[in-house]
Amino acid sequence: MAMAIRKNIDLRVEALSSAIAESNLAQSRAIYNPIFSTSASTGKTTFPGEDFRTSSSIGTLGLTQYLPTGGSISASTQAGYTTAESDNASISTEDWQSSVGLTISHPLLKNFGKKVMELNITLAGNSLEDSLERFRFFLADTVFSVVTSYNRLYSLRRVLESRQAALTSVQDLLQDIRRNTRPGQLQRVEVANAEYALAQRRKDLVDAERNLRDQEAHLRYLIGMEEKTPIIPVDPPSREEPPESQKQALATALESRSDLKQLRLSLESALLQEEVARHQVLPDLSMIASGGFSGIDGSIGNSFQQIGQGEGAWWSAGLQFSLPLGNSAAKNSYRQSRLRTEQLRNRITAFEWQVNNSVESDMRSLISARLQLQTNDQSVRFAEERLAEYRNQRKSGTATVQDVLNAENDLIAARNAQSDATETFAYAVALLWRDIGVLLERLNIQVDTSDPETLTRRSPQTDGPVAADVLRSPAVPPSPLTPPVPEMAVMATPGPSRQDAPVAPAERTMTEPAPPAAVAGPDRGTDAKGTRTGFTLKIDVFVTNAALAEVQKALMEAGLTPVLEYGPKKTGEVIRLLTGSYPSQKAALNRLDALRRIKADSFILRDKGGFKVYAGSYLLEKGARSEEKRLAYLGVKSTLEKATVNLPTYRLTAGRFGTREAADATASRLATRGLQARVVAIVP
After folding, report:
1. 70, 345, 457, 528: which is deepest, by most CB within 10 A?
2. Are 655 and 536 in contact (CB under 8 A)?
3. Under a CB-based contact definition with an 8 Å cutoff, are residues 199 and 171 in contact?
4. Cβ of 159: how many Cβ atoms within 10 Å?
């Protein structure tokens, strides 16, 4: 955010507009600067047929000041001499004439008053405030673009990681087929399916890399980063709920939106111009008065001495009146001003209506995004359990490679859909905050927008630390694929396949999106040989995704990045939805196909010479009951059946610390949040 505020070129352009508006305001106020004037002249006059001639020289100094009421006052002094020469020396003269006086000119009708006199100053002030509001609008819009672009980059990097993990998965699967399957028709089919999936996933990886680079280029432009340094986003899209109700959001929008404030400033200017235009319809009646003192003598000193004694005085006063016949120009100007004012009032009314529609639309989008997020969280859980069943069935020879690939693709699609849903939810929240004018406040961005030109000025002293905050590198590469939940399944037909579905890292098992692993603490510990050592925190063992996601979220709120590890298998109880037992495999497969058509995560298990068909397997009874109700609504009767199986467990580690003291301090801090963490040494 800081880089964008300081270095975004579009924001810098808008900031310069504010600087120009500020300069225009200072220029408008210059009307009250006193005006100094001076003049000098000389001349000579002769008369034909006469021996008489005159010559004169005169100099003038003056100072004029405009008054807030529309008039002006001038002070001036004048000094000069006149020489009358003749061949007859007795009639030749030379005199100095001096004067000091004041002149006042003031309108009485048209152009009278402070509002008229300072019209341009007021308009320039409103224009400056308008430019500041426009800058605040651009600033919020730029921050919104950075947030959405950053979240998109995070999602695309997750997609890239998933493409890489998916490619590794199918390569391992292909090696396993060639190593463990006997040569024959079945092996050739399995190899062909795996090689086709390998080619598709290589293509998907290339597309993901290109999309990531394009998004990085877009984000670099937004934050003004000229270097081609890779940008590694570490913060996932936020799931924070907005605190505003729809009524509160609308009231805030009508009060806080910068573009609405701009329209109201325009209306204020239009009302002033309308008032001035109405005043300009009046006749032009001005009062002019002047007066002063004068002196005349043979020397300049004596002439000014006479002024000081007040011996010679002069004054004049008068009125000047003018009115264009018909006065149509002023009248039509006033009419245009009234129409512009009415036009702006209608624009504000229409815009307030649009704001109301925008807020309502944002609220609907937020509700939709929230529901999609919840649905995708459930889909990921179902897809994980389904893939585990298919992997188990393949081990027992009852499922094909294509079944596993299809289930893997579906899980990958579910995880990427979950990531997209999280991004969409974060976008909906940010859009609502932008549209009601509180985006900066909600993101805790506090900037002084009173001087945009200084705020956006590029400074080498401040660029470095900002870049260091934004650019971080991942410390731990993606983990291998998640081990399956070992339930002994025997046979399944290929499920729905989506070859174009995006691939997500198969190791992700949390319902919350997991960020790239990163080092959270200082890493200074080394042994005598320079081998890297240190300490980390281990937090509990988890079986359910919900508990795992809850702790992961708490660690991230504490400023740590959790890293997923896989613990020992644990014997646990699952709840299956039994839909029927069948004596023949064909009948069981027919039932399986019928369940898949209604989106059930179905599978088959052999049982005492027959086959049982299940509509899903759940760790929590709540999920099983929910699916049981859904199936009953669709006309499928099912019963809950408990089974004991070996379940995979997950362990979280967080942080890397150079000393045990630092690790203990962080563990104590986590304990205040209800998280119990053990400090363990990192083995070189």
Report:
1. 70
2. yes
3. no
4. 26
Bridge partners, 320 (sequence order): 286
Phi and psi at residue 281, in whole multiples of 5°?
A: -70, -20
Long-range contacts of 189-198 (CB under 8 A, 24+ apart): 189/400, 190/400, 190/401, 190/402, 193/400, 193/401, 193/402, 193/405, 194/170, 194/401, 194/405, 197/170, 197/405, 197/499, 198/167, 198/170, 198/171, 198/174
d(CA 433, CA 427): 10
Which of 170, 176, 172 has its CA nearest to residue 194? 170
Residues 6+ apart with CB under 8 A from 97: 78, 79, 80, 81, 82, 294, 295, 296, 303
Is residue 638 within 8 A of residue 577, CB to CB? The reply is yes
Rounded distance, CA 274 to CA 592, Å? Answer: 78
In the numeric block, which tokens belong to residue 132?
Answer: 């500041």
At residue 568's C-alpha, the angle toward residues 565 and 573, to 5°, is 115
pLDDT value at residue 378: 86
Q: Which two tokens stand for residue 457?
A: 């000025």
DSSP result, 118-139: THHHHHHHHHHHHHHHHHHHHH
What pLDDT is recorded for position 145?
92
Residue bearing tokens 């043979």: 298
Q: Is the pLDDT of residue 471 over 70?
A: no
Instruction: Work out the angle between the directed axes of helices 401-435 and 185-223 (0-180°, nearest 10).
Output: 20
C-alpha–C-alpha distance, residues 227 and 506, integer Å:
33
C-beta atoms surrounding 397 within 10 Å: 10
Q: What pairing do the DSSP bridges indicate for beta strands 535-542 and 639-657?
A: antiparallel
For residue 264, is pLDDT > 60?
Answer: yes
Element (H, E) at 577: strand 562-582
Helices (H), 396-447: 401-435, 439-442
Q: What is the dihedral of CA 264, 266, 268, 274, to 10 degrees?
A: -140
Instruction: Identify residue 190 by its one-letter amino acid code.
Output: E
Torsion of CA 12, 13, 14, 17, to 10 degrees: 120
**Which tens digit of pLDDT belongs to each residue from 388-413?**
888 888 888 788 878 888 888 888 88
Which tokens sit at 325?
Answer: 């016949």
Tokens found for residue 534: 């240190």
Average model confidence (pLDDT) for the chain? Answer: 80
In the block, residue with structure tokens 């969409």:
424
Going by C-beta distance under 8 Å and a sequence separation of 6 or more, which residues neighbour residue 384? Answer: 411, 482, 509, 545
- What stretch of H or E contains 540? strand 535-542
